[in-house]
Structure formats: C-alpha cells, structure tokens
Amino acid sequence: MNVYLGKFKEGFIIEQLSLTVSLRGNREVKDNYQLFRLTGLMDAFSEPIFRKVLSKCIEDGPPHIVLDLSKIDFLDSSGLGVLVQLAKQAQTAAGTLQIVTNPRVTQTVKLVRLEKFLALQTDVETALGNVPKA
User: Fold this and answer.
1) Residues contacting 44, CB < 8 A, separation 6+
2) Has residue 8 been placed in a domain?
3) Distance in angstroms (rounded) separating the CA atoms of residues 119 and 98
4) Is it the case that residue 5 has pLDDT exceeding 50?
5) N or C end: fewer C-beta atoms under 10 angstroms in the chain?
C-alpha cells in the first residue's frame, strides 16, 4: 500500500492511493466529507488493503464518505462485503456512505439486493448533494 500525501487544491487535500496493482485512486478531503475516486478491480485480492485504508480514513474523519466507483471494472462478493462493512462503520461514526456506480457495479449490487442499503448514486454531484452539511 502506498499513500502519497498530495497537494492542497481549492479547499481539498488530495492524496494519491496506490492500494494494489489492480486498484488505484485518490482521496479528496473536504471539511465535512471524503471523496474517493477509484479505478480497477474490487476483488478478493484488493479487498484487505482497501478495507484497511478506508476504515482508517473513516476513523480519522470526516465520517461522510463518497466512493466514486464509476470506473471500477469488476466487483465481486469480497468487494460487496467490504462496502457493507464500510457503510456500517460510517453509520457508527455518525457519517454516511454514498456510492457512485456504473452499470456493472449497479448490476452486481442489485443481484444481492443491497442497492437501498448502499445508497447508490448515478454521479458524484448527486452523491455530494446528499452529504449532510457541516
């Protein structure tokens, strides 16, 4: 796992995340939320490090999380499991979890009937609009 402390841009702190060979992205931290933009595969290989990094980020705050999975190519049961764990962790921390999806991710989530629990959104702007104000 490599986390690179990034630069400050328009009120955001941006970090590049190199989670695994198959899962990469960045993290933007604003006053009341964290936005993660991810690309690649969310599978059994990437799940342990993804869970560890995001759990730590939720603990450190802010507890409102937006996961942009619109560029995720594959999501398996391990990836779904970690999304459920993160949603519960965010709720416990008095936060929320919004997930921006693509058709492949949406289909996988709906297959196991988790679409309402995981708060699926069609785009980042909609997800950010659902984040409670500070």
Assistant:
1) 76, 78
2) no
3) 5
4) no
5) C
Question: What is the extent of the structural domain holding 70?
Answer: 16-129
Residue-wise pLDDT for 70-114, tens only, equals 999 999 999 999 999 999 999 999 999 999 999 999 999 999 999
Residue 66: closest CA among 38, 92, 46, 94: 38
Residue 6 placed within a domain = no
Pick the more confident residue, 14 or 46: 46
How does DSSP classify residue 133? P
Q: Look up the pTM and report it.
A: 0.86
Whole-angstrom Cα distance, residue 122 to residue 59? 26
Decide if 115 is inside a domain: yes
52 pLDDT above the threshold of 90: yes
The whole-number pLDDT of residue 12 equals: 62
Q: How many separate domains does the chain show?
A: 1
Sign of CA dihedral 77, 34, 66, 16: negative
Q: Does the residue 1 lie in any domain?
A: no
